[in-house]
Amino acid sequence: MLGWLVAVGCVILVAWIWPRTKYPGSKKKPSSDALLTGLLTGIPQAKAGETPASDRGHEKSASAVALICKPSALANYLLKHCRTFNNYSPCVGWSWRASAILQSVYDTCWPYSSPVQFVRDHLQLSDEGLVSLDWALALCGTSSHKRRRTSSTSNSPVLLIIPNSFGKITRNVLKLCEAALSHGYLPVVFNRRSHNGTPLTTLKLQQFGDPADLREAVRYIRYRQPAGRLYAAGESTGAGLLLSYLGECGSSSYVTAAVCLSPVFRCQSWFESGLPRAVQWALVLYQKMSLSRYRTVLGETVHADSLFSSSSLRGLEEGLFCQTPHKSTSLPATTTATTATSGSTGPNTSGSWEAYWDRNEPLRDVDEVAIPVLSVCARDDPVRGPPRYTLPLELFQTNPHFFLLLTEHGGHCGFSAQAPVTGVAPGSGSGSGGGVGMPRTSWSHGALLEFFRATTDFFASEERAKQLAARRRGLGGGMAGRSFRNRSISTCKRVPECSHNIHAIYSWQRSYTR
User: Fold this and answer.
1) DSSP helix, strand, coil percent of the chain (3-state; round to 5)
2) Biggest alpha carbon distance in the chain?
3) Element (H or E) spanning 503, and its range?
4) What is the distance between the alpha carbons of residues 35 and 393, in angstroms, rounded to a whole number?
5) Cβ 126 vs Cβ 204: under 8 Å
6) Is the dihedral of CA 436, 171, 429, 140 positive or negative?
């Protein structure tokens, strides 16, 4: 696998990087998108003695960071207490990290030997399929790294990490696990069916934006760690699954706050025409390699020859989910019935590409999201595409739950900074691994951790203010504060869309775990 990744990197380097990349340090051509330019140069910075935004030129500062959101008390709190938001110094000059393409390839394809120790749980789903959860327990070299599992009575915050939709555990994900552990979080990586060594036990794969499997995984995490707050982070196309889950479950998601790192928002158009040819070729090759071990069994539900001869991401997605099964009569009755009734897996019986995205577009239920969600994006992201076409700015300007950190430079899941990010602490204080030194942290990871801390502190202060007001009125506010720790934070109406009755669904004594 390493050889393939190196080959892919070399092809991208030769065929795409040199013809398209400008020399490092060259002056960037001003964007024709007046709205984005105004946002990037018009957001006030929290640094003492900095030149006012109105006096800055359009392209003077390469480290411009815009927080785009609807004005609110939480937004003001974030601007005041999240120093990382205004402290991004990207690599410039002749460093290779100044290239958005090179740092994107490095953080997504380059091998990385992580010091983090993982313990895997295989979770059996209601349809007998399997997903896996990789728990990062401690850094190598610490006194507790041999511990298999954290006690269910631990109040350490849990960080649920959703990798990209292709199943590649990138350098970015491993670095995020390190940063989270070092600041007291308990990271857990969600692996979809057949991804990252997870066995495929059914004739089904998870559709791009269907959160059914993720919902069951969250139930299990809440069962395992009932005392800790749950946070979530989605990387690249994995953010689409996270947004789908938050929209479908609303205020019953059990997530306190979420962050999307270099997300892809308009996924249908991205699959159709949003990728450069070299990047699409690399992703298609990687996905075919991952699916090749299941070619025989997939042939029972899809046209395998057509699937593996496809040369585009759209062709692969259509081949997996938008074809009528050509051997439906040979399928077991239980499998056929589940395929027809479950939106999470199996072919799309309507055979329509448009109908598929009606059910899987990440922003389809965005109005139901009831927790703070931060998206960290760069204007020069070579994977997502031009921001004027790929960023739903109206969403961030009108929905109080969504915040966009938009940087001038950073690439795709890169955000390499000139200096390490420091001074970040989780909302619950230090935990295991808090005293361990760690390698240079991505700026986006520091912003993520600081966002979690700030939102938690903000809503905790709001709860205290409500209790104090209730006591002054003589109504008693003792119960209000105790509900904060294990619920999602929202001012929206609470409709219990997702059931979390653990014992009615599972018998954990017979679940697939090791």
Assistant:
1) 45, 10, 45
2) 73
3) helix 502-505
4) 9
5) no
6) negative
Residue 42 region by backbone torsions, left for phi larger than 0, else alpha for psi between -120 and 50, else beta: alpha
Taking the CA atoms of 251, 255, 260 and 266 in sequence, report the sign of the dihedral they define.
negative
The tens-digit pLDDT sequence of the chain (514 residues) is 545 554 555 545 434 443 344 333 333 333 334 444 444 433 443 333 333 333 333 333 344 789 999 999 999 999 999 988 988 877 666 666 677 788 788 877 787 888 888 999 999 999 999 999 999 987 655 544 444 555 566 789 999 999 999 988 998 999 999 999 999 999 999 999 999 989 999 888 999 999 999 999 999 999 999 989 999 999 999 999 999 999 999 989 999 999 999 999 999 999 988 678 888 888 899 999 989 888 888 888 888 888 898 889 999 999 899 876 554 433 333 333 333 333 444 544 446 899 999 999 999 999 999 999 999 999 989 899 888 889 999 999 999 999 999 999 888 988 877 655 444 544 443 333 333 334 456 899 999 999 999 999 999 999 898 888 888 887 654 555 555 554 454 434 444 444 444 444 443 333 434 3
The set of residues, in sequence order, having a beta carbon less than 8 Å from that of 230 and lying 6+ positions away, is 157, 158, 160, 218, 221, 222, 254, 255, 256
Torsion sign across C-alpha atoms 60, 61, 67, 71 = negative
Burial of 511 (0-12, 13-18, 19+ CB in 10 A): middle
DSSP summary character for residue 282: H
Judged by DSSP in three states, 104 sits in helix
Question: Which candidate, 361, 457, 454, 365, places its Cα nearest to that of 403?
Answer: 454
Residue pair 450/443 in contact (Cβ under 8 Å)? The answer is: no
- Return d(Cα 290, Cα 346) in angstroms, integer: 18
How would DSSP label each residue in 177-218?
HHHHHHTT-EEEEEE-TTGGG----SS----TT--HHHHHHH
Global pTM reads 0.77
Secondary structure of residue 478 in the 3-state scheme: helix
**77-102 residue pLDDT tens:** 999 999 889 888 776 666 666 777 88
**What contacts 506, CB < 8 A, 6 or more positions away?**
219, 220, 223
Among candidates 412, 406, 416, which has minimal Cα distance to 384? 412
- Rounded to whole angstroms, the Cα distance separating 403 from 397 reads 8
Q: Phi then psi for 328, rounded to 5 degrees?
A: -65, -25
Radius of gyration of the chain (CA): 23
* DSSP at 86: G
Alpha helices per DSSP H over 82-211: 100-109, 171-182
Active-site residue numbers? 381, 412
d(CA 185, CA 373): 18
Which sign, positive or negative, has the C-alpha torsion 26, 27, 32, 34? positive
